[in-house]
């Protein structure tokens, strides 16, 4: 069973041998759930269809029977499938989705990596309101995105929850505003905003406050005693990279600490790339690091240990994602975007637009991530990292 996420799929394949058994199993499980969810929502497996057996899916996906069984459990709990004793497992007929008066389209880049919790929140709100869901994935391909959008509009959707493909290097804000304005149904952008437009951005959107998330990560490391802090970021990793870098820069400036950005524009991290990052971090005397991406943080920790560093005694690590942070060999302190809540709020905003012509809009929401503290970050022990701060520089984590 193949993931639809071409971009992240390529990145995650490189250096996979550095992931422990637990991380690999969790990654395969989440990809499997995402792919099964996609097949249900885009009607590859239509309502009422009998699903392949556990053994058939295990053979196709390369997952164990236990992993497939857990995937079935999650999809059943989400109300997407039903089990009938002695007969098999079927896609839920979902009469509320099939007969609902409101038809909502959802167009996102993928279902396997970042978006499953967002989709869960969307699905729940639409089900609670008797709305019908029509789903499509752009697969990180502009041509596929254009075709998928046309297909959703042809299906007669009343409104659209949309995560457009916006390249970090594409600064043509007017073009993006025009694209959204041309869609002939109400639109709410999901985990996207046209930040470069400033006050001209009149889109409805719900997105993560990535600047705030990065700021809080630096503040956490500062409170632990670190005064030289690095940011390891893959600038090609989507539109979140730039605001994370901005938030990091603002935090090191406000807290009067030394910051270093390791931000080579590589398509994927490898063990060799992680080794180079650690060498630079050590050379700059940094004792704490914020790393964009759980997988990248896991590779960074492996490289640090190869270099003889102890985690967190010699190098404290905070990951930005919290997708696989809890299953890492050393559980990662992580900035955790509130994806489920973001999905729910996006769906609620769109339904409100569809029900009322006089919404005082546009509505624009940024959700600040939470910080989940685990074993990869503890108070620093180095002399330069434990020097007392001025009272007016102390900040709560």
From TrEMBL:
Database matches in InterPro entries: LacI/GalR-like_sensor (IPR046335), Peripla_BP_I (IPR028082), Tscrpt_reg_HTH_GntR (IPR000524), WH-like_DNA-bd_sf (IPR036388), WH_DNA-bd_sf (IPR036390)
| Composition skew (Basic and acidic residues), residue ranges | 380-397
Which Pfam families does the annotation name?
GntR, Peripla_BP_3
Known EC number: 2.7.7.65
Which stretches make up the HTH gntR-type domain? 26-94
UniProt keyword terms in alphabetical order:
DNA-binding, Nucleotidyltransferase, Transcription, Transcription regulation, Transferase
> Is Transferase there in the keyword field?
yes
For this UniProt entry, the molecular function terms from Gene Ontology, in alphabetical order, are: diguanylate cyclase activity; DNA-binding transcription factor activity; transcription cis-regulatory region binding
Q: Does the keyword Cell membrane apply?
A: no
Class in the EC hierarchy, top level: transferase
The source's superkingdom equals: Bacteria
CDD domains, per database record: WHTH_GntR
User: Can you say what this protein is called?
Assistant: Diguanylate cyclase
